[in-house]
Amino acid sequence: MVPLGAYLLLSAVLFTLGAFGALARKSAVAILIGLELMFNAALLNAVAFWRYLHPQGFEGTVFAIVILAVAAAEVAVGLALFIAVYRRFGTADADDIALLRG
Amino acid sequence: MVTTFLFGLIALIMVLAALVAVTNRNLVRATMGLVLVLFGNAVLFVLLEAYFLAMAQIIIYIGAIAILIVFAIMLTRHVGEDWGPAFHRAWPWALVIAGGLGGALLFWMVRWPGGENTPAGQVDPNYVQALGQALVNPQGYVVPFEVASVLLLAALIGAIYVAWGGRRVKGPYPQRAEGGER
Questions:
Q1: Residue B173 burial by CB count (10 A; 0-12/13-18/19+): exposed, middle or buried?
Q2: B170 vs B182: CA distance, rounded Å
Q3: Could you tell me the sign of the dihedral formed by the alpha carbons of A78, A83, A85, A89, in that order?
Q4: Domain parsing of chain B, residue ranges
Q5: Following CA atoms B29, B35, B40, B41 in sequence, which dihedral angle do they give, to the nearest 10 degrees?
Q6: pLDDT confidence of residue B77
Q7: Mean pLDDT across chain B
Q8: CA–CA dist A85, B162 (Å, integer)
Q9: Whole-angstrom distance, CA of residue B86 vs CA of residue B15
Q10: CA B70, CA A24: separation in Å to the nearest integer?
């Protein structure tokens, strides 16, 4: 049987990669992809904890469902903002969306 | 055993796909890397016997969110435009910060004694049915369920308003007849 630590390790690695992607990328969509990776790592963490510690309860699954719903809402709003910003600035580059300069 | 081997294989695929997702200049390829991570997540949920969540992951994440990301990419590119560099100038700082975050995470994780746990018990074969009943039970989890629904509704209304362009549509579409902006 796979120990719980293996799932947590995988989740930590995915979270770190997502954090790097969200911090280092230029395009706003690529930043969103990094954010989605972080959400998925947290979701994997939640489900692993549910299975290994309280598989008869519902709290873990409800928590995971709420994470899923919040991630979906966040992506919808984020992409709508991205489209509106692109319409205003003509570029998708996070470096160029800088009105508060200096 | 089969479970351990399968977990190792899926974990390896997921990490490689995540690397593609965060480093590729081509945004469509990055999104495909993300889809592979999402699918690997769904397979892991099946391994963890969370069957409802596996299906929800596929339908919601891959079937809606990843498609939405591809739409956003397609709507905001000029045809034949170069994708440009993947990272901005300060990317080593991002590596330092993310590496520090991951290092701190691992540091505290190995100190937790529960890492060798094996699964606590069995999952009820009627779990999904019981989950459905718990989600609408007033003494159960109906409040988080409804709150998540309202959150989604508010987010989608906001997203439609933001992406539409705001105040330009008035009344029964006279602008359309003139060919004006929507």
A1: exposed
A2: 9
A3: positive
A4: 1-79, 126-166
A5: 140
A6: 75
A7: 86
A8: 10
A9: 19
A10: 20
Per-residue pLDDT tens over the stretch B111-136: 888 777 777 778 888 889 999 999 99
Comparing CB atoms, the residue among A16, A25, A29 nearest residue B102 is A16
The reported pLDDT for the residue numbered A101 is 66
At the second CATH level, the architecture of B1-79 is Up-down Bundle (1.20)
- A98 has a chain B CB within 8 A of its CB: no
Residue A22 burial class via C-beta count within 10 angstroms: exposed 0-12, middle 13-18, buried 19 and up = buried
Token digits of residue B32: 């495909």
Which position has the token pair 């906001």? B158
ipTM of the complex: 0.91
Judging contacts by C-beta atoms under 8 Å, the chain A residues touching residue B162 are: 77, 80-81, 83-84
Q: Which residue of A has its CA nearest to B14?
A: A14
Nearest chain B residue to A38 by CA distance is B18
Please give the structure tokens belonging to residue B79. 């045809």
pLDDT at A76: 92
Complete DSSP assignment for A59-92: HHHHHHHHHHHHHHHHHHHHHHHHHHHHHHHS--
What is the third-level CATH fold of A4-89? Helix Hairpins (1.10.287)
Boundaries of every domain in chain A: 4-89
